[in-house]
Amino acid sequence: DGGITQSPKYLFRKEGQNVTLSCEQNLNHDAMYWYRQDPGQGLRLIYYSQIVNDFQKGDIAEGYSVSREKKESFPLTVTSAQKNPTAFYLCASSPSREIYGYTFGSGTRLTVV
Amino acid sequence: AQSVTQPDIHITVSEGASLELRCNYSYGATPYLFWYVQSPGQGLQLLLKYFSGDTLVQGIKGFEAEFKRSQSSFNLRKPSVHWSDAAEYFCAVGALTGGGNKLTFGTGTQLKVEL
């Protein structure tokens, strides 16, 4: 079945370390997105990519980086510059040339200690 | 730019009671509207969507939503709530922009179901 896989489900890191969250999709979607979710704040867009080798900053990109070398993959790196990285991270994908609902992965909960 | 408002942060209903979750949108053209549900620690699952046509839309798990252009609303309803419906619900409006397919989400409504 087609879908989006985020790994790992839970991730623990020490403060000051970079960490990379994985997102893979087999839906043949052009567009992919990363959201951060904190209690009471809904979904906040970090980065998105409409096509391979291209991506744009969302509303809260500071302290994060991404790459899009393959259509299927859109990894997110949380750098040591991110002041408050502990959160739930969601990856999503969609077609890019038509209005369409997003398909979401099951999320990664990152805890930085 | 489009926006979505979900006025209720938390709602509590008794099992078996009816449910209505409110969603108001702002968008200049005909909106494309979505409702998603999120169980704790999980991703978002699409409940239903409105693109055009019949203003009453049926979705999964017995949910429906009604599009009212005059009120800029797209409220989610369920006639009889089950304990398993306890979750967070997000309304979203979609548009095609220079940046592609863009969904704007509301801040969510947390539903608690009392047994």
Describe this structure in words.
The complex is a heterodimer of chains A (113) and B (115). Helices cover 0% and strands 50% of the residues of chain A. By secondary structure, chain A is an all-beta fold. In chain A, strands 2, 4, 5, 6, 9, 10 and 11 form a seven-stranded mixed β-sheet that branches. Chain B has strands at 3-5, 10-14, 19-21, 24-26, 32-38, 44-50, 56-58, 64-68, 73-78, 87-97, 100-105, 109-114. Chain B starts with a strand and ends with a strand. The mean pLDDT of chain B is 93.
Topology:
The complex is a heterodimer of chains A (113) and B (115).
Chain A: E1 4-7, E2 10-13, E3 19-25, E4 31-37, E5 43-51, E6 54-57, E7 64-66, E8 76-78, E9 87-94, E10 103-104, E11 108-112
Parallel strand pairs in A: 2-11
Antiparallel strand pairs in A: 1-3, 3-8, 4-5, 4-9, 5-6, 7-8, 9-10, 9-11
Chain B: E1 3-5, E2 10-14, E3 19-21, E4 24-26, E5 32-38, E6 44-50, E7 56-58, E8 64-68, E9 73-78, E10 87-97, E11 100-105, E12 109-114
Parallel strand pairs in B: 2-12
Antiparallel strand pairs in B: 1-4, 3-9, 5-6, 5-10, 7-8, 8-9, 10-11, 10-12
State the gist of this model.
The complex is a heterodimer of chains A (113) and B (115). With 113 residues, chain A is mostly beta strands.
Question: Keywords, please?
Answer:
heterodimer, A: 113 residues, mainly beta, four-stranded antiparallel sheet, B: mainly beta, 12 strands, 57% strand, globular
N- and C-termini, Cα separation of chain A: 36 Å
Order of helices and strands of chain A: EEEEEEEEEEE
**Protein structure class of chain B:** mainly beta
Helix content of chain A: under 10%
The protein's oligomeric status is: heterodimer
Calculate the terminal CA-CA distance of chain B, rounded to whole Å.
41 Å
CA-based gyration radius of chain A: 13 Å
Largest sheet of chain B: 6 strands, mixed
The major β-sheet of chain A equals:
7 strands, mixed
Q: Which strand-content bin applies to the residues of chain B?
A: over 45%
